[in-house]
Design goal:
Distance between the termini: 100 Å
Shape: elongated
Order of helices and strands: HHHEEHHHHHHHHHHHHHHHHHH
Strand content: under 5%
Structural class: mainly alpha
Number of helices: 21
Radius of gyration: 36 Å
Helix content: over 70%
């Protein structure tokens, strides 16, 4: 009896194996008839059966069908072709994407399943024909890449990172041999990795971002000012000046005169109080963009702060020996900024503030003078400096009002009004001072 049972089992297994092999052929036949539904059904059964679970062709066919399901017809690729064998001549069958896409909603992980199927097919057939896979897989790689870029443009950086991460699996297929000698794919994989670094940077994953960005910096394929700027920003946040300097040096060697890199360097030195180095960087920036008023403003502000140092609490410190020269440099650059951009409220404000502060210094000297005659002799000079400040402060006011007082200019607007009110009072124009003060009191 046991022998009969065993024979019956063997007979059943043989029939089942033949049935599953028939399912593979049936799937191919259904593809010829553009019947994706039954082709999918047949191949799903074949890859689950013990008799064909190790059949490379079955897994390859599953990869094809699921790739078609997961590839949007909007990819401008009207069909995917299944090649039965690279030596079989014309045995190629189209899978129309619009038909296959009908199963996309019920198979949201279709592309993931497709990849795993192709991977399994390669593992099962050490003598696989590369061209069979290279006629299909690059389309899937581009699909993931396009998904990642679309998600990045929508500021969905975590989702974009994950989409681009899937591309690394393709790169490693067959130990990296499948795409190893295709430069176009090398470029695509490298760019995907670089964009992953951007996604990590945008989501505050600094350590992960740095690992990828430094890979990209070393890779000749992925050279862009962006990767250097992101890396220096992170090292700035980490207070790692040595690494910041190293990356910035590389960036300036690679992109001499690049405006964004120069501005990045300027912002770094400015925020870290490195005035001398900042002046050199600003001059470099002006050489690259001689018509940019903001650079002259920052340079003027830098010179002025060097001439009038304060401690961390804001308390005035002794002026340097070359303070007069530094202040003149500040005035020259403020004036240049106003000439380049007559509607730049900050240029007008800094010019007004410059003369107002000079008048304040004279007022302080007058108040410290005990000799009435000397006090009176100093007054005309002080009033003349105040008169220089008035038109610039008034222009600041009018420009802010023309733009509309908002969060970005409100503080400057209030300071300009306060300076105008006090300046008019000093020169005896009390009614004008009261008028300005009334406007100032209405600013909320």
């Amino acid at each position: 009896m046991k022998k009969l049972i065993i024979l019956a089992f063997i007979a059943f297994y043989t029939v089942n194996a033949q049935a599953q092999k028939a399912n593979i052929q049936s799937a191919i036949n259904y593809l010829k008839d553009k019947d994706v539904a039954n082709a999918k059904k047949m191949i799903d059964e074949a890859v689950k059966s013990e008799s064909t679970i190790n059949n490379a062709k079955a897994w390859f066919l599953k990869g094809l069908i699921y790739q078609a399901i997961g590839t949007p017809s909007s990819e401008q690729m009207p069909f995917i072709t299944f090649i039965v064998s690279s030596t079989s001549g014309d045995n190629a069958y189209p899978v129309v994407l619009e038909t296959a896409n009908q199963f996309a909603a019920s198979t949201p992980d279709a592309l993931d399943q497709s990849f795993e199927a192709y991977k399994k097919s390669i593992e099962l057939n050490s003598k696989y024909e590369k061209q069979e896979y290279l006629s299909l897989l690059p389309f899937m790689v581009y699909t993931y890449f396009n998904q990642g870029i679309t998600l990045m443009n929508e500021n969905k950086f975590n989702d974009a990172y994950n989409a681009l991460e899937k591309m690394s699996k393709f790169k490693s297929l067959d130990g990296g041999k499948l795409f190893g000698d295709i430069k176009q794919m090398d470029t695509l994989f490298a760019n995907a990795r670089m964009y992953q670094g951007n996604c990590a940077y945008q989501t505050g994953k600094d350590d992960e971002a740095l690992t990828i960005l430094e890979e990209s910096i070393k890779n000749p394929i992925t050279q862009s000012p962006d990767i250097y700027i992101m890396a220096t920003d992170i090292y700035d946040r980490k207070k790692n000046e040595a690494k910041w300097m190293e990356i910035m040096k590389l960036a300036k060697q690679k992109y001499p005169g690049d405006k964004r890199i120069i501005n990045n360097e300027i912002n770094y030195y400015r925020s870290n109080g490195k005035s001398e180095v900042l002046v050199a960087s600003l001059k470099e920036g002006i050489a690259a963009e001689p018509g940019k008023a903001d650079l002259y403003l920052i340079l003027g502000e830098t010179y002025y702060n060097m001439a009038n140092p304060v401690d961390k609490s804001g308390k005035s410190q002794p002026k340097p020996a070359n303070a007069k020269e530094l202040e003149q440099n500040a005035l020259t650059n403020y004036t240049k900024a106003s000439e380049l951009d007559a509607k730049n409220a900050y240029a007008q404000f800094y010019l007004g503030l410059y003369h107002y502060n000079k008048a304040k210094e004279l007022t302080d000297a007058m108040n410290n003078e005990k000799d009435d005659k000397k006090y009176s002799a100093m007054k005309p000079e002080r009033d003349a400096v105040i008169e220089k400040a008035l038109p610039f402060l008034d222009k600041t006011r009018s420009l802010c009002e023309a733009e509309g007082v908002n969060d970005s200019n409100k503080e400057m607007y209030k300071q300009a009004l306060s300076g105008l009110s006090q300046a008019y009072m000093i020169i005896g124009k009390n009614e004008k001072s009261a008028e300005i003060q009334k406007v100032l009191s209405g600013v909320k």
